C-alpha cells in the first residue's frame, strides 16, 4: 500500500519539476494534485493498451494518484491499472490507488443478456440479495461490498487498496428512503471498517455524482454530515478506535462548481458547501470530471481562462479544479500518453490562491 515514506520519496524525486502545492497531504503521506482516471473507453484490448501506456507515462512522470472502479470497462480498467503498476518504474508504496464498488460489473465484455448474467453471477450464488438490487444495476449490501472488494484486489494484483469508495450511493434513492440509504451506508461502512482492520484497505469513502452538490430537499440529496456520522458509528460498531472514512469524490469543474457554491450541508455554524464541510471535517476531496470528460479541453469561459495559468485550455481547466479550497487531487481521464503529458504539465503552473479563486465567483 502507499506509505508515508514511499509517497514522500516519490515527491522528492519529482517536486522540483512542479509548481507550489502540486503534492498535497493525504493521510500521513502525500499525493499528486493531478490524478489519472480510467472511466471512458470501450472494453477492448486496443483501449487496454492505450490506458497501459498512459498510466505508465503518468506514473513515471509525477502522477501518483490512480482512480478506477470495478465496473469501468467491464473490469478491464482495474486489470490494466494492475498491469501498469507492475510495469512502471515506480514502487508500489509510492502510489495511491483508489477503486470503487457498487455497480454490478460485467466481466471483460458486455453479456448478450445482462439481466441473466446478474442473476447467474451474483443473485443465484447468494452474493447479492435480490431485494438489495436497485434498478438491476446497483447494490451496497455488505456481502456484495465484500465480494467486490475481493475481486478488485485480484484484478489490481494488490494486497491492499489505498482508498475504496462506495460508488454513487445516491443511486439507492431511486427505490429507498433517505433514512434507509443512510442505514445501508452504515452497514457497508461497518464491513469496510472490518476490512480496514484486516489490512485489505487503508481508507474508504464515497464516490458520488450529485448527492453532495444539490440543494437539500432534492431527490438525490444526501447529507455529508450524516454520512460522516454514520461512518463514525460504523467504526464504533467494528471496534475501531477511529474511523477509516477518509475521502469523498465528486464532480468539480468550471461549469459544475456546485460543490463550492451550493450550501446544502447543515452544521452548527450554518449551512456549508460540500467542499467547505469536507475541509472543516478533515476529509480529502478528489474531484472527478475535472475537464468535463474533455468538453473543457476545447473552451473555457473567457473571464475564467484569463485568471488561470497553463499553456493549453485543458491545463487551465485542470488548474481551476485543483485551485478550489479543500481539493486534494483533481482526476483527469486519459488514455493516451500525449494527453497524460499535457495533463501532468498543468502541475508546473501554480494554482489560484484562495482570494483569486473566490474572485471567479464574484
Commentary on this structure:
Residues 175-202 form a coiled coil. Keywords: Coiled coil. Residues 34-210 form the NADP-dependent oxidoreductase domain. InterPro entries: AKR2_Oxidoreductase, NAD(P)_OxRdtase_dom_sf, NADP_OxRdtase_dom. With 362 residues, this protein is α/β, with parallel strands linked by helices. The protein has one domain: TIM Barrel (Alpha-Beta Barrel), CATH 3.20.20.100. It is 38% helix and 16% strand. It is built from 13 helices and twelve strands. The chain has helices spanning 4-14, 45-59, 76-87, 114-123, 142-156, 178-197, 224-238, 258-261, 274-281, 302-305, 313-321, 337-345, 354-359, and strands at 23-26, 29-32, 34-37, 65-67, 96-101, 161-167, 201-207, 245-251, 263-265, 272-273, 284-288, 327-333. The chain has an eight-stranded parallel beta barrel with strand order 3-4-5-6-7-8-11-12, surrounded by six helices. Strands 1-2 form a two-stranded antiparallel sheet. Strand 1 (23-26) and strand 2 form a beta hairpin. Helix 2 packs across helix 3, helix 5 packs across helix 6 and helix 6 packs across helix 7 (224-238). The N and C termini lie far apart (42 Å). The model has no long low-confidence stretch (mean pLDDT 96).
Amino acid at each position: 500500500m502507499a506509505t508515508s515514506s514511499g509517497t514522500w520519496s516519490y515527491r522528492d524525486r519529482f517536486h522540483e519539476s512542479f509548481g507550489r502545492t502540486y503534492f498535497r497531504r493525504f493521510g500521513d503521506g502525500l499525493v499528486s494534485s493531478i490524478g489519472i482516471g480510467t472511466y471512458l473507453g470501450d472494453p477492448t484490448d486496443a483501449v487496454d493498451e492505450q490506458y497501459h501506456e498512459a498510466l505508465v507515462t503518468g506514473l513515471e512522470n509525477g502522477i501518483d494518484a490512480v482512480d478506477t472502479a470495478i465496473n469501468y470497462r467491464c473490469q478491464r480498467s482495474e486489470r490494466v491499472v494492475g498491469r501498469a503498476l507492475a510495469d512502471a518504474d515506480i514502487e508500489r508504496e509510492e502510489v495511491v490507488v483508489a477503486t470503487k464498488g457498487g455497480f454490478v460489473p460485467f466481466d471483460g465484455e458486455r453479456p448478450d443478456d445482462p439481466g441473466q448474467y446478474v442473476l447467474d453471477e451474483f443473485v443465484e450464488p447468494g452474493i447479492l440479495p435480490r431485494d438489495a438490487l436497485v434498478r438491476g444495476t446497483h447494490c451496497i449490501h455488505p456481502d456484495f461490498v465484500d465480494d467486490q472488494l475481493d475481486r478488485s484486489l485480484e484484478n489490481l494484483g494488490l494486497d491492499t487498496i489505498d482508498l475504496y469508495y462506495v460508488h454513487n450511493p445516491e443511486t439507492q434513492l431511486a427505490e429507498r428512503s433517505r433514512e434507509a440509504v443512510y442505514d445501508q451506508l452504515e452497514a457497508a461502512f461497518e464491513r469496510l471498517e472490518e476490512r480496514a482492520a484486516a489490512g485489505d484497505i487503508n481508507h474508504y469513502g464515497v464516490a458520488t455524482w450529485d448527492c453532495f452538490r444539490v440543494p437539500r430537499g432534492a431527490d438525490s440529496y444526501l447529507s455529508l454530515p450524516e454520512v460522516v456520522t454514520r461512518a463514525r458509528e460504523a467504526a464504533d460498531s467494528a471496534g475501531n478506535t477511529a474511523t477509516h472514512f477518509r475521502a469523498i469524490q465528486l464532480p468539480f469543474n468550471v461549469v459544475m462548481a456546485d460543490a463550492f457554491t451550493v450550501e446544502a450541508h447543515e452544521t452548527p455554524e450554518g449551512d456549508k458547501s460540500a467542499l467547505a464541510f469536507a475541509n472543516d471535517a478533515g476529509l480529502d476531496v478528489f474531484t472527478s470530471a475535472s475537464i468535463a470528460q474533455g468538453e473543457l479541453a476545447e473552451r473555457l469561459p473567457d473571464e475564467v481562462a484569463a485568471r488561470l495559468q497553463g499553456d493549453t485550455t485543458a491545463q487551465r481547466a485542470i488548474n481551476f479544479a485543483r485551485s478550489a479550497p479543500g481539493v486534494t487531487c483533481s482526476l483527469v481521464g486519459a488514455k493516451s500518453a500525449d494527453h497524460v503529458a499535457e495533463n501532468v504539465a498543468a502541475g508546473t503552473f501554480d494554482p489560484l490562491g484562495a482570494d483569486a479563486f473566490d474572485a471567479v465567483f464574484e
